[in-house]
Automatic annotation (TrEMBL):
Span of domain Type II secretion system protein GspG C-terminal: 53-158
Protein name: Type II secretion system core protein G
Compartments, record wording: Cell inner membrane
NCBIfam families: IV_pilin_GFxxxE, typeII_sec_gspG
Lineage: Bacteria, Pseudomonadati, Pseudomonadota, Alphaproteobacteria, Sphingomonadales
GO biological process annotation, one example: protein secretion by the type II secretion system
UniProt main location, coarse: membrane
Coiled-coil region: none
Alphabetized UniProt keyword annotations: Cell inner membrane, Cell membrane, Membrane, Methylation, Transmembrane, Transmembrane helix
Gene Ontology, cellular component aspect: plasma membrane; type II protein secretion system complex
Membrane topology: Single-pass membrane protein
Length: 161
């Protein structure tokens, strides 16, 4: 009998504590509508600033894309050299990364499927200039203006190896 009474008193105590927690939690409301609106306005302002800064600089984005592409092409050229002992010659060009060259020196270890999936174009959709003696190479984008030299987004972007 004592055990049963003890259990009933424990249950009553739990209910009483539960009611206290409920009363305490009622004072802790979530975010108010006004607070949520302020947060949404702040997010909208930040998104607007980011959009203006990013969308207002398409040529800078193209230059960044070009640098990233040159980095990828450089990696593909290094893989080509590891497989074949030399970089593609200037005559073979970057096309040697897509399909096996037939012009000498014909690579003996050319990877099935190639090293790039498509011809490489810079951010302004122009082909890269490629020069190589087989042991070193230079990849160059002539920038936005398509002319050697220049400054800012018109500057040449080079990759060497």
């Amino acid at each position: 009998m004592r055990i049963v009474l003890k259990q009933f008193s424990d249950i009553a105590l739990l209910r009483q504590n539960s009611k206290r927690r409920t009363i305490l939690n009622k004072g802790e409301a979530g975010f108010t509508l006004l607070e949520m609106m302020i947060v949404l306005v702040i997010i909208a302002v930040i998104a607007g600033l980011v959009t203006v800064n990013v969308m207002g600089r398409p040529d800078e984005a193209k230059a960044t894309t070009t640098k990233s592409n040159i980095s990828s092409i450089t990696g593909a050229l290094k893989m080509y050299r590891l497989d074949n002992g030399a970089y593609p010659t200037s005559e073979q060009g970057l096309k040697a990364l897509i399909e096996k060259p037939t012009a000498p020196p014909v690579p003996g270890g050319w990877a099935q499927g190639g090293y790039l999936s498509a011809p490489a174009l810079d951010g302004w959709q122009k082909p890269y200039a490629y020069q190589s003696d087989g042991m070193t190479f230079t990849i160059r984008s002539l920038g936005r203006d398509g002319k050697p030299g220049g400054e800012g987004v018109d500057a040449d972007i080079d990759g060497k190896g």
